[in-house]
Amino acid sequence: MEYIGKKEQPIAVFDSGMGGISVLRELVSVMPNEDYIYFGDSKNAPYGTKSKEEVRRLTIEHAEELFEQGAKGLVVACNTATSAAVAKLRELYPYIPIVGIEPAVKPAVNCKENPRVLVMATPMTIREEKFKKLMARYEDQAKIIPLPCPGLMDFVERGDLDGEDLQKYLTELLYEFREEKVDAAVLGCTHYPFVRKMIQKTLGSDVQIFDGGAGTAREMKRRLQEANLLNDSGTKGEVIFRNSLKDERKIALAKMLFEMKAGDDTTKP
Ligand code: DGL
């Protein structure tokens, strides 16, 4: 396969809004010498309650813009956009490394013998064929419980990571899964790692929580290596944040989320 990019070009990271920053943090940690363009489509968020056709159209449109801006590869850091568009994107751009994200069901299923695994994701991710196939692959090893969480990503978009309204929302949403009713929970939307602490608190400390960010970052590194596109300059790269909402507050929130340490999901000092 002939790849058209050059090592010094940036990697594009795309999401419907702020969520993909949880993947960006992992990417920077495994490939610190790369430059990144992070693009959040907050103007059209949420994606998870839209139709597949619309999410596919928006994802392809923004991917094209990012390639025009000189990206050598693309991480679709959104489970919803991945299920709607990643196959089509790979068909359109076979000469560019493109990596998507899917709910981290595999490590959750392996957390113990016959576990009960809750998968939290957007309504679209859970409705899609891609997720049904993923579930079918593991259904003889675990009890997998899909849980659509419409509205959860909005808290992160507003920068509310630990407020009372969020706690109320989670208490209602997770009511029947508290007190050891599940062994593991999969954060199947890239926004959710930013509210991991609150999810953990609501489900209880014995529940193991998984997300696919680190695996996706490792996969992108592998793909770039294979394409001989890894930046080997030895100097620390830069991150540029862009958002479809021309609002400086979105960029400031993106930078704040990026600076937070993984697992440190609180806006309090
Ligand atoms: N962050 C996105 C995901 O991983 C979706 C949030 C949304 O736009 O609904 O699925």
Any chance you could write out the topology, listing elements then pairs?
Elements: E1 11-15, H1 21-30, E2 36-40, H2 52-68, E3 73-76, H3 79-92, E4 98-99, H4 105-109, E5 116-121, H5 123-127, H6 129-138, E6 143-148, H7 152-157, H8 164-173, E7 184-187, H9 196-203, E8 208-211, H10 213-226, E9 239-243, H11 248-259
Parallel strand pairs: 1-2, 1-3, 2-9, 3-4, 5-6, 5-7, 7-8
The structure holds D-glutamic acid.
D-glutamic acid is lined by residues 15-16, 19, 45-48, 78-80, 122, 125, 153, 189-191.
What does this structure look like?
The protein is an alpha/beta fold. The chain is built from 11 helices and 9 strands. It has a 5-stranded parallel sheet, sandwiched between helices. A 4-stranded parallel sheet has the order 6-5-7-8. Helix 3 links the parallel strand 3 and strand 4 (98-99). Helix 1 crosses helix 10, helix 1 crosses helix 11 and helix 2 crosses helix 3 (79-92). Bound molecules: D-glutamic acid. D-glutamic acid binds at residues 15-16, 19, 45-48, 78-80, 122, 125, 153, 189-191. D-glutamic acid (DGL) binds next to helix 3.
What's a concise summary of this model?
With 269 residues, the protein is an alpha/beta fold. It contains 11 helices and 9 strands. It folds into 2 domains: 138 residues, 3-Layer(aba) Sandwich (Rossmann fold), CATH 3.40.50; 106 residues, Rossmann fold, CATH 3.40.50.1860.
